[in-house]
Amino acid sequence: MVQLPYHYGVKLRIFPSTEQKRLIKRNSDASRFIYNEMNGMNRELYQLKQVKIPIALVQQRIQTLKQRLKRPATGISNLHGWLNDQALDSLMKANAIKNYHNAWKLFHKVHQAGTPAFHKRRTEQTYQTACLYDKKVKTPNMLMGSVRLLDQRHIQIPKLGRLRFKGLPAKLLQNSQVVRIGTVTLSMDATGRYYVSLQLASEQPFVAHPSQSILGQIGIDLNLDNFLTDSTGNVVANPRYYRSMKNRLAKAQRKLSRRATRAKQNHRILRKSANYQRQRLIVANLQRKVANQRHNFLQLLSTTLIKNHDLVVAEELRSKNMLRNHALAMSISDVGWRTFLGMLAYKANLYNRKFITVNPRNTTQTCSHCQFIMGTDGTHKLTLKDRDWTCPRCQTHHIRDWNAAKNILAKGLAGA
User: Which residues form the Probable transposase IS891/IS1136/IS1341 domain (predicted)?
Assistant: First the structure.
């Protein structure tokens, strides 16, 4: 999969039977258990290594943990016999261990995400498996392998069998002979909907690339007043999906909190409290609606920008730092800038376009006509209230966001 030049991901909704739902839950619980066991053994090993006195019992335990961590799949399964159940996917175990190692690699590489933490038991369920191909198969594709398409509506998955799905793009069905499946993730969200995510790869591009690029270049300025303003003056309004649902969601969450309090007073487990679970589902559906609306808006806008321009330049945003401003934190979270920039990045590769980000320093304060910077030569810097201004040097009147988009494009062209 890694050697193939083109990659693509797709998430499909599936409709499992009652027995298949039970198997998904068992595999999800086993995957979480293995991850937590790996984390527990590593933490215990770290604590034992802090003991300076060479106690024989401690040294023996250290050697035991080291042996188990060398071959965790065998070590954990031998210690916990229920993991050898035939209903559990063996590749699920391998992926759980792999995910734990990847968490450590991410910590050493980024050193911001924190050391791997224990996975709590949640309403959501998820586990990963993989598609294996027989050595005799010369050209692996989506129609053969342990995970394969049976027809346009059904997919075969190890241990689960035949599953009905919907949402596979027509272009993938047409090219199923040259596309192969890699990692497969099965999940259930808080609303009880089941999904399968497929990692796909191919030697051919998933989108037909044009022979010649005749499209233009564009710079975009992201802001809270409007979602974005581009260098041609077009403005995309900010839909504010969360704000439109805020009051309704808050009312439902207050009701959920009251039901949780009542269940605890009556010494009932929340997981088995029917009234609490019914209200939790209402809250989860409202949150999913907001997330789906935002996701659909960002997908459509990012695809339009990438398909219609050879070069897209955006400002490099650090959402983590911006969220420290409590007055704007909710609006920044609602707008989804970080997700939007991520979509532009991977779609640029998909459509053979170019997307770059530039340092936003002084893009708002600089005149795009004469390059005069506000705040110099005795002038005052522009504030958030200043939505339009006139350059004191060349007397050019600017609309704040449009001017910033022009400066962002100019920086991108200079760096390109």
Answer: 217-325
State pLDDT tens for residues 13-65: 999 999 999 999 999 999 999 999 999 999 999 999 888 887 888 999 999 99
| Structure tokens, 200 | 């796909």
Q: By the 8 A CB rule, do 182 and 370 touch?
A: no
Amino acid in the structure at residue 310: D
Instruction: Note the Cα 271 to chain centre separation in Å.
Output: 27
- CB-based contacts of 34, cutoff 8 Å, min separation 6: 72, 76, 83, 93, 96, 97
Would you name the residues annotated as active-site residues?
Answer: 221, 315, 401
Name the residue ranges covered by the structural domains of the chain.
Answer: 6-18+124-202, 20-110, 209-416
pTM: 0.88
Give the integer Cα–Cα distance in Å for 211 and 213: 7
DSSP letter assigned to residue 272: G
Cα-flanking dihedrals φ and ψ of residue 160, to 5°? -95, -30
| Of the candidates 217, 227, 238, 241, the residue with the CA atom closest to the CA atom of residue 401 | 227
274 residue type, one letter: A
